[in-house]
């Protein structure tokens, strides 16, 4: 049984060895560039961990694990165009460093590369693996589209929000783990349980992220605390507050959302005050807890001795109890 | 043995039946929209013809044929963003009707859909088919990138131009035919011959298109005659002329290329005059002939009775002897 850090190191080494043709340079250099920006390589490492969980050959799963990393970075390259993001991991984004056309086309080529890497599994599981991969890719596209549509919409329900975060980020975690399980020789039932573990964990993690953005320790949380409030981002907290606020409270919240000029600290204090009155933090933590329990419930149900699951459980525990 | 028009009708029917989820609407409506714009459905029909050539089950090849049509339209959707094209088949392009973000993301989703459709082949040939499909997709991305790079470059060689048209359009024809052949039960050797037929035919067709743009009958050629000359498009003819022109001729050609204001008819006449002096038409027709002969040579070598090849030969003859 291998530890997450060892698996991340294995992936880092394999990413460094990934090579693409030299020409056309404007097609392949952006791919090498975005992959070299780093990141924690959590998803591919988790694919290996899922494979290892069922006693599979971890080395043999490295190429499909890279497929997940390449796919994920393809979505980042295209998302950054759509979001007009200037930076990715502190470095200039591809569409800024080159241009939008290069980022569109290199992203397309990356998706093809990810398909090729994912094909590097045994014939006996090829269709199962590719079916999961394709379904995952569809989910990620749907999630991104729903997320973009939220910016233009006034009313978003909690259910719609949960669907969005599930598709946009959680299904990739679930799909990654399921593919690792299939490569590792898991039964269909166990592979599906690991998928459920991943999806629920992913949703719980996103909800925790929403909570930490408001209630995190500024010294330990990696982002500006209150950033979501300042930018009117539709998070679980804001959507729940809009659902529950009545009369004067609703007016106050609406004013803060519509004000074009405001003092940022004042807005964060005021909106957080409304959240407190409405017990929004408790609602959010309850929802997060529910998803976390479903995740751990799925992990518990997997038909393996507990000691085999320790690394995955440790990872999930660690993910959901970040310092805040 | 089925005729091309029958196969096109079969594809049209299948395209009409293709359905996508209702939501997110901005992800799936653009896919239905671009597919409904029509087109001759030549590529998918040729996949069926290749399958039929080897006695395969044409009905069973319809889904992979649709994969080619969906893939082709995905590339058009993204190309139109890159080219800032306002119209596609006389209708508003997706990025104009919706916006560029929608066109990027719907294109991505289309590529996933095309992969899913291509997976609908028997397990025994799944890897071979997907390998050809992925290689084809890589080629198309490379070709588009090389084509974009030509706009910024002064000197493009004939070899580079031939590589570009081969990748951008001809490998898709070759890949389509090869996939059809594999589904139809062809040997590897015959499938490869059909690939060679398609690629060479595709290059010959592009060269013919370059020739017709200058020498076609205005009443029969679908586009404005001389359009390539007016827009300084780097075609086989222009590249060859730049290679061969010397002294005063080279200066005159260069002046026409650099003039920002000019009378269009005058420019077409002058540049065509230079082409005549340099016998550019003959060079282009010779090159086209060489590719056509390679295409027909590959078709001849396929290990089947001549009468089975008649529809494919008729198609190629017809493609390369358009009215002009």
From TrEMBL, chains A, B:
It comes from Mucilaginibacter sabulilitoris. Belongs to the FPP/GGPP synthase family. CDD domains: Trans_IPPS_HT (cd00685). This is Polyprenyl synthetase family protein. It comes from the Bacteria. Coiled coil: none annotated. Keywords: Isoprene biosynthesis, Magnesium, Metal-binding, Transferase. Signal peptide: none annotated. Its cofactor is Mg(2+).
